[in-house]
Amino acid sequence: MGRFEGKVALVTGAGSGIGRATALCLAAGGAAVVCIDVEPEAAEATAKAVAETGARGEAFACDVSDAASVENTVKATLDRFGALHALCNIAGILHFAHSHEETLEGWSRILAVNLTGTFLMCRAAIPHLLATKGAIVNTASTAALQAHPWTAAYSASKGGILSLTRALAIEYGRQGLRVNCVCPGGIKTPIHSAFHFPPGADKTLLQRIMPFDGFRGPEEVAHVIAFLVSDEAKHILGSSIRVDGGMLT
C-alpha cells in the first residue's frame, strides 16, 4: 500500500517541470492527483501520465492569478473527490531584465502568478485542508534567500512566498494544517531553459549562484515535496528546505 493511498493532492503548474514531476511522484505513492495548469493540454498530458501509474489523475485548466478560476478549480476538485489532503503550489513564471528597465506590467504579472497565485490557492484550499488535517507545500526559490541578478520581480515574489508560508504555518499549525516550502536552485526546468542574459549583463555575476554538484532534474525537488506532504514530515512546520546542490553553502 502506497504512503499516499486514499489521499487527494492538488498540484499547480503540473504541466511541466517540478509540477509534473511532483504529480507523478505523488501518484507513485498512490495519491489521486488533480493536475492544474494554465495550459489545458499540458495538464491533460500529466493527468494521463498519472493514470498510467495506476493512480487517478484529473486535469483542470486554471489561471492561479485569477480568483474566480482558483475558486472554481478547488470546488471542482471537492465535487469530484469529496476531500483534499494536500496542496502543492508550484506554478510560477520568470523573466530576466535589468531592474531599471523592468516594466510595471512585467513586475505585476510575475507577482500576480507567483505570489498572489500561491495566496489564492491557499485561501481556497485551507478550509478543506483543515477538515483533513492536510498539508501545503509552497515553492519559493534560492532567489528568496540570496541575491540573484536580473530577477527583481521574481526574487520579490519568492521572498513573499517564504514569508507567506511562515505566516500560514503559525496561524493554522495548532489546527492540524502543516505548511512548508521548498527553495529550489540549479534545477533543469522550462524556466531554466528559457534563461538569457539581458543586453550588456555582467556574466560573472552568475558565478556566485552556481550549484556545487551541477544542475539536476525536477524529480529532485519532487521527492522533497512528497516527503513534506507525507506523514513522515508531521513534525516539520513553517520550514523552508533548500534543494540547490549546495548553491548557498
Find the count of extended strands (DSSP E, 2+ residues).
7
Q: How helical, in percent, are the residues?
A: 40-55%
The arrangement of helices and strands along the chain is EHEHEHEHEHEHHE
Quickly give the structural class. Answer: alpha/beta
How large a portion of the residues is in β-strands, by DSSP E? 5-15%
Low-confidence stretches: none
How far is the N terminus from the C terminus?
38 Å
Number of DSSP helical runs: 7
Radius of gyration, taken over Cα atoms and rounded to an integer in Å: 17 Å
Q: Outline, from the CA principal axes?
A: globular
**In which order are the strands of the major sheet placed?**
3-2-1-4-5-6-7
Q: Profile the largest sheet.
A: 7 strands, parallel
Q: What is the overall pLDDT average?
A: 93
What topology emerges from the helices and strands here?
Layout: E1 8-12, H1 17-28, E2 32-37, H2 40-52, E3 57-61, H3 67-81, E4 86-89, H4 104-132, E5 135-139, H5 152-172, E6 178-184, H6 190-193, H7 219-229, E7 240-243
Parallel strand pairs: 1-2, 1-4, 2-3, 4-5, 5-6, 6-7
Helix pairs in contact: 1-2, 1-7, 3-4, 4-5
